[in-house]
TrEMBL record:
UniProt cross-references to InterPro entries, sorted A to Z: TPR-like_helical_dom_sf (IPR011990)
Stretches for region Disordered: 1-34
Designated name of the protein: Tetratricopeptide repeat protein
Biased composition (Gly residues): 12-33
The species this protein was found in: Kitasatospora camelliae
């Protein structure tokens, strides 16, 4: 039996609208939206683990949009969803996009580590 850890995924659709207040056509950035993004990351990583790459990609893109709107494009909290999204893209054969996402994830982590060391 496999034990799963991490936040609960809730009962919505991965690509559905976020909660909170956002601009029309853009992701919401309230605390409810970040919770929605956290759940989308958990769902996306679980879907990726069972080979549901297209559904994982959808959930993870949703999470990345919310995190970018809430924290900015250079925040270290984007590293995990970018890494997972890169893995999903690689599994679907989109290697150039996967490389870009994985490189961005690593750069965020490296920058964060460098800041900790100074």
């Amino acid at each position: 039996m496999t034990e799963h850890t991490g936040p609960a995924t809730g009962s919505g659709t991965a690509g559905g609208p976020a909660t909170g207040s956002g601009t029309a056509g853009g992701p919401a950035t309230g605390s409810g939206a970040v919770g929605s993004a956290d759940a989308a990351v958990a769902l996306g990583t679980r879907l990726e683990a069972v080979g549901e790459h297209a559904r994982a990609e959808e959930a993870l893109r949703h999470a990345v949009r919310i995190y970018e709107a809430a924290y900015g494009p250079d925040d270290r909290r984007l590293a995990l969803p970018l890494n997972a999204l890169g893995t999903a893209c690689a599994a679907r054969g989109r290697l150039a996009e996967a490389e870009r996402l994985l490189t961005r994830s690593l750069a965020l982590l490296a920058r964060d580590r460098a800041e900790e060391e100074t």
